[in-house]
Amino acid sequence: MNYTIENNMLKVEISSKGAEIQSVKGTHTGYEYMWQADPKIWGRHAPVLFPIVGRLKNDEYTYDGKTYHLGQHGFARNQEFEVEKHTKESITFVLRDNEETRRVYPFKFELRVNYNLLNNLLEENFSVTNTDDKELIFGVGGHPGFNLPVNQETVKEDYYFATQPSEARVRIPLEGAYLNWNKRSLASTDSLITISDDLFKNDALIYELRGHDNKISLKTEKSKFHINVWTRDAPFVGIWSQYPKTDNYVCIEPWWGIADRQDASGKLEEKYGMNHLAPGEEFNAGFSIAYHGEEE
């Protein structure tokens, strides 16, 4: 079921399946900011990633002597969430462990996803509570896809990414679906990154953010359209679009977790980038997106 939050600047539709944004439109312009999930290209809008981000080696891991199968980005994006609270400008969804999740992830948990509007800013907040009697090990993240307005005057290659603070960041390359840890390098994210189809021929661009506030902007010099994503305390971000199937959209993905390294042991307790939460404790994280239309 879809639910709506709105104010005088934005109207947002979110599905209870996966607690996934379906649409973000300008209240007055009707402009659609979000990718509309063409199944021939990429059939999602903005999935919530939990309890892993990225892919496990062979899509499996071991925990407490048992082997579990878990697909890319985890199961939350395919689960039905409950609505815990809903106001005109805010909504909170909750997912609790169930028989299906425990078959692939042997932990008790509560995952809350909150969306909150403030003028042209949409906040996406994650809360993970360990309701088990053992340590909870998890990753969580966002994966919003944004439309690139393309017309007679503006093409895809007119758009670029800009980052603040303006500084170099460590890039971790993917080899296949896994991190090639030995080839990580210092990337020139202090300069503009021009968008093109070939930018993603080796899959996502993954950067370490060192857990402090970062802003990644999607811009063009040919209009006033731009989107700002504040990653807040996310340790990683992925920038991605489908390749070789392509279209006029890109994703900016704040992550509190990351894909397996090529040298991963397969043990969940040893997986790089995971969060560890004691029984009864709560983890909070999130990011914010500011939408600026062409007409503003």
The number of strands is: 26
Radius of gyration: 19 Å
Low-confidence region ranges: none
Helix/strand order: EEEEEEEEHEEEEEEEEEEEEEEEEEE
From the N-terminal CA to the C-terminal CA, the straight-line distance is: 32 Å
- Overall 3D shape: globular
Classify the helix fraction into a percent range: under 10%
The amount of beta strand, in percent, is 35-45%
Strand order of the largest sheet: 7-8-9-10-26-22-21-14-19
The helix tally amounts to 1
Q: What is the residue-averaged pLDDT?
A: 95
The largest sheet, given as strand count, sense and whether it forms a barrel, is: 9 strands, antiparallel
Find the structural class using helix and strand composition. Answer: mainly beta
Describe this structure in words.
The protein has one helix at residues 99-104; strands at 2-6, 10-15, 20-26, 48-49, 60-63, 66-69, 82-86, 90-96, 109-118, 121-130, 136-138, 140-142, 145-147, 159-164, 169-171, 174-175, 178-179, 185-187, 193-194, 205-208, 215-220, 226-230, 236-240, 249-256, 275-277, 282-292. It has 296 residues and is mainly β. It is globular and about 60 Å long. The protein starts with a strand and ends with a strand.
